[in-house]
């Protein structure tokens, strides 16, 4: 990796222009003393994935162990690295922002002559990002802070600007087409979309990469119109060719130096046909791969024949967005206009998973208008398919986003008696918890969610699913048992 890549002379000139023009940086002597200004600047582009001050669902020790690879930020870091820039991606996880900043200073990454790229993957990471920005600005008044994260920046950049006054630039869309320009004096900040990347993520750019399970972006978008989902209107792109996926699996094994990795094929709706799946089997065989992987889909997007084929190609876990089995709720979520057909296909798919050794993890969403009756309908369906279900993830719907977007959802939901628990939180945090209906308030929805999780999942099932993708790769069953012992059992979503 080159500190001053020779093929980037033109860009380097722009960067120099940026360095001199960017901000009137005349800190007081007191600010200079003891600040990063006194230190030599690196030429590293530091990508920081904002962490969380507390876990997004229930706070317990096990939740704090989970790692989420920020593959969007890694995609940008990979592009810049391929162009010769020295790049690094660090994840805030559950560390204090000050701890992470200290580590970046200690290892010489900061201060840098190039921008700090802060990626905010969800509204739960906003508080962490605010603290981090303040600390960076305090330590280095000349730092350029660029903030991205399409789901958080995109809905209302004006709102986010007030939350992050220290940020120099907010990038509202996908940054792949403009990432190089962000290092220059003339950054492009237009809202843009970008196709599914054709390159393999360089996981070695991630600090402590061995702890994270890798990702392959298989396709972007969905466009199936579910009312609560941010991807509802973003059209589904063509899946990468099967041969390309197999080649990516092989490259990832090379990056990690082992086939003992569990890549996540990232796709909001992984929907290959039988032909594509057959090609994947051949391609995986011709590369001599035996890698187990996981992906996510709808319950009506894959046929049993396709499942059999994908299982042969290494698919071991499938996250399924069933969301509900109540015909009323299927309609109000706009999950499908044909609940009977939807549930029939869900049933066939779950059985196919069971028959082919694929662990089906079913996502259930308690939605606006939920009642004891609708919940019973979902529970009956899950009971019927219990033997084919490896685990569940259950939680009440939450309105994400600033008032500009969240209020549209809240207004729609109000028709079924759903109201915000605290309407101020929309503007304050971008996270609005709700009472689902007149019959089911937020507290009973949380209790019903825990109850349903425990009904279908014991500690073994939970550990198997979480350790496949989300726990650090070196996290053992012994570690898990120790953490269970140290946790508040009333908050754990599985039975002992
Ligand atoms: S199928 Fe899934 S990803 Fe697509 S719109 Fe519905 S919830 Fe979103």
Describe this structure in words.
- The protein is globular, with a radius of gyration of 23 Å.
- It has 2 domains: 40-183, 3-Layer(aba) Sandwich (Rossmann fold), CATH 3.40.50; 213-397 and 436-491, TIM Barrel.
- It contains 19 helices and 14 strands.
- Helix 9 (242-256) runs parallel beside helix 10 and helix 10 (274-286) runs parallel beside helix 11.
- Mean pLDDT is 92; it is low at 1-22.
- The strands form 3 sheets. Strands 6-7-8-9-10-11 form a 6-stranded parallel beta sheet, with helices on both faces.
- It has 496 residues and is of the alpha/beta class.
- The protein has helices spanning 9-21, 29-32, 61-65, 71-82, 97-106, 126-139, 150-153, 157-163, 242-256, 274-286, 304-312, 327-332, 339-355, 372-384, 403-414, 424-429, 442-456, 459-469, 477-485, and strands at 44-49, 86-91, 116-119, 145-148, 169-170, 215-217, 264-266, 293-297, 315-323, 359-366, 389-396, 398-400, 419-420, 431-435.
- The chain is 39% helix and 14% strand.
- The chain binds iron/sulfur cluster.
- Iron/sulfur cluster is lined by residues 222, 224, 226, 229, 231-232, 268-269, 298, 321.
- Iron/sulfur cluster binds next to loops.
How would you summarize what this structure contains?
It contains 19 helices and 14 strands. By secondary structure, it is of the alpha/beta class. It has two domains: 40-183, Cobalamin-binding domain (Rossmann fold), CATH 3.40.50; 213-397 and 436-491, TIM Barrel, CATH 3.20.20.
């Amino acid at each position: 990796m080159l500190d001053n890549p020779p093929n980037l002379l033109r860009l380097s000139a722009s960067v120099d222009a940026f360095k001199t023009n960017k901000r009137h940086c005349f800190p007081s002597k007191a600010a200079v003393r003891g600040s990063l200004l006194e230190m030599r600047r690196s030429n590293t582009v530091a990508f920081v994935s904002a962490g969380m001050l507390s876990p997004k669902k229930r706070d317990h020790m096990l939740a704090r162990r989970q790692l989420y690879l920020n593959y969007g930020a890694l995609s940008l870091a990979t592009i810049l690295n391929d162009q010769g820039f020295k790049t690094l991606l660090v994840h805030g996880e559950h560390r204090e922002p000050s701890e992470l900043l200290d580590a970046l200073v200690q290892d010489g990454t900061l201060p840098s002559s190039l921008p700090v790229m802060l990626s905010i993957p969800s509204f739960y990471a906003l508080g962490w990002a605010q603290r981090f920005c303040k600390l960076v600005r305090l330590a280095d008044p000349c730092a350029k802070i660029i903030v991205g994260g399409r789901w958080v920046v995109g809905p209302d950049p004006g709102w986010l600007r007030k939350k992050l006054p220290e940020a120099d630039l907010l990038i509202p869309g996908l940054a792949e087409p403009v990432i190089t320009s962000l290092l220059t004096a003339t950054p492009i900040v237009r809202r843009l979309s970008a196709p599914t990347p054709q390159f393999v993520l360089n996981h070695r750019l991630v600090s402590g990469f061995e702890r994270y399970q890798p990702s392959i972006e298989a396709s972007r978008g969905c466009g199936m119109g579910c009312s609560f989902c941010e991807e509802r209107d973003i059209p589904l792109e063509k899946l990468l060719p099967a041969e390309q996926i197999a080649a990516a699996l092989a490259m990832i094994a090379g990056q990690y130096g082992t086939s003992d990795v569990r890549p996540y094929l990232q796709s909001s709706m992984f929907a290959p046909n039988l032909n594509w799946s057959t090609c994947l089997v051949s391609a995986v065989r011709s590369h001599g791969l035996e890698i187990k992987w996981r992906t996510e889909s709808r319950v009506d997007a894959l046929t049993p024949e396709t499942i059999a084929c994908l299982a042969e190609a290494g698919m071991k876990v499938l996250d399924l967005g069933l969301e509900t089995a109540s015909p009323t709720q299927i309609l109000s979520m706009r999950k499908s206009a044909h609940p009977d057909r939807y549930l029939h296909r869900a049933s066939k798919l779950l059985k196919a998973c069971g028959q082919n050794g694929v662990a089906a993890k079913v996502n259930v969403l308690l939605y606006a208008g939920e009642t004891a009756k609708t919940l019973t309908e979902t529970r009956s369906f899950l009971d019927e398919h219990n033997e084919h279900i490896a685990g569940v993830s259950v939680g009440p719907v939450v309105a994400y986003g600033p008032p500009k977007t969240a209020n549209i959802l809240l207004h729609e939901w109000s028709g079924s008696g759903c109201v915000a628990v605290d309407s101020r939180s929309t503007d304050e945090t971008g996270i609005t918890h709700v009472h689902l209906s007149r019959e089911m308030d937020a507290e009973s929805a949380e209790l019903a969610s825990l109850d349903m999780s425990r009904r279908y999942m014991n500690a073994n099932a939970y550990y198997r699913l979480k350790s496949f993708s989300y726990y650090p790769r070196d996290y053992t069953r012994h570690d898990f048992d120790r953490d269970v012992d140290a946790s508040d059992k009333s908050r754990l979503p599985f039975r002992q």
